[in-house]
Amino acid sequence: MDLALTEEQTAMRRLARDFVEREVAPYAAEWDRAEGVDRAIVGKLGALGFLGLTVPENYGGSGGDHLGYVLVTEELGRGDSSVRGIVSVSLGLVAKSVAAWGSEEQKRHWLPRLCSGEAVGCFGLTEPGTGSDAARLTTRAVRDGDAYVISGTKTFITNGTWADVVLLFARTGSEPGHRGISAFLVPTDAPGLLRREIHGKLGLRGQATAELVLEDVRVPASARMAPEGKGFSVAMSALAKGRMSVAAGCVGIAQAALDAAVRYAGEREQFGRTIAHHQLVQELISDIAVDVDAARLLTWRVADHIDRGLPFTAESSVAKLYASEAAVRCAGNALQVFGGYGYTDEYPVGKLLRDARVMTLYEGTSQIQKLLIGRALTGVSAF
Ligand SMILES: Cc1cc2nc3c(=O)[nH]c(=O)nc-3n(C[C@H](O)[C@H](O)[C@H](O)COP(=O)(O)OP(=O)(O)OC[C@H]3O[C@@H](n4cnc5c(N)ncnc54)[C@H](O)[C@@H]3O)c2cc1C
């Protein structure tokens, strides 16, 4: 793996950093308090090509490699995890799945819209009764002539109330577990699809998280993506790459924690000198720095494997597990450096900690990542 970035990757990172400094960071605290990111951000992300990274240009994407995608995702995560999540889901989970699994008609219909930001995508896997055990989902899609009629409830859906299309997973067959699951691209204005925003989240407050209730939602058979019974493969392949995206966002949180802690330690004085002079404060900062580097290198490794066509699924779980736990540790250590001031929303570290906390939960909890890594190494499935 070559750790030197290409000119193009360096330029991409600079573009993302400038964008975040201008359009995201100054508003992040305000959006957090208001429980809503300004929706205009979607068009701005699209205009810069950030919603089409790695998607082929002939479908409206901006092309590029996965390391470039990781660099942009880290910068967005550094500025605001709620904004980063919009991209990770609409592009990372939905558009990339359409590019990988969609029919020519589905690609031509959805990809240009998703890549430009004209449309937003959401990923509907989790249900009230099935989170980690997604293969037991109960939403049903019943074939009726040249259509499917879908009923069920999805919960915790990122971008849920903003989205124009949901990549939805539903049971079409009678086979138990993952074999009976199919994937559908369901327009969110379909009659019978109701959305309810979920409030009161610890973090990611700027992000629209929703419950989706489907009552006899009728979609043409052409809305099914990939063959019947292949839906779980679609979901798992999306999440394998999605975990790299979450890891990159976590590197961004950890880097933001490091920047804030170093700055504050050089300003705050106690015992007649700046707290940077106290060795135990330096320990907190060095612990954050080691976590940032380790999480970043593990995340880059995933992108490198994808770009070189190597297996990457276990590596993606390793990166997601480490980077998400590291983001929580780093934000906590940064808050410690800030002392009591870190506990108020006058400074950004409290929000970093709240936003980091969900990273060990979604796209597979830390426990589930450990089982996936253990399965890859031993060949034995604990599920
Ligand atoms: C803010 C937010 C956004 C989200 N966005 C999306 C989205 O866009 N789309 C989507 O589909 N989902 C989304 N999710 C759902 C998320 O992926 C699930 O919450 C997650 O998979 C965990 O499921 P659960 O909450 O039902 O927990 P559970 O599965 O009930 O787990 C509870 C606890 O039990 C542990 N556990 C479960 N099974 C095992 C096991 N076999 N061995 C050891 N421990 C186990 C877990 O690790 C956890 O600690 C989101 C969630 C949140 C909070």
Blueprint (SSEs and pairs):
Layout lengths: L6 H18 L3 H7 L5 H8 L18 H14 L1 H21 L2 H13 L4 E4 L15 E5 L2 E12 L6 E7 L9 E7 L5 E5 L11 E12 L3 E2 L5 H35 L3 E2 L2 E2 L4 H29 L5 H26 L10 H9 L8 H13 L5
Parallel strand pairs: 1-4
Antiparallel strand pairs: 2-3, 3-7, 4-5, 5-8, 6-7, 9-10
Helix pairs in contact: 1-4, 4-5, 4-7, 4-8, 5-6, 5-7, 7-8, 7-9, 7-10, 8-9, 9-10, 9-11
The chain binds flavin-adenine dinucleotide.
Question: Would you mind describing this structure in some detail?
Answer:
Its cofactor is FAD. The structure is a single chain. The chain is an alpha+beta fold. The chain folds into three domains: about 110 residues, Butyryl-Coa Dehydrogenase, subunit A, domain 1; about 110 residues, Butyryl-CoA Dehydrogenase, subunit A, domain 2, CATH 2.40.110; about 150 residues, Up-down Bundle (Butyryl-CoA Dehydrogenase, subunit A, domain 3), CATH 1.20.140.10. It is built from eleven helices and ten strands. α1 runs parallel beside α4, α4 packs across α7 and α7 packs antiparallel against α8. The chain is globular and about 80 Å long. Flavin-adenine dinucleotide binds next to β1, β3 and α11.
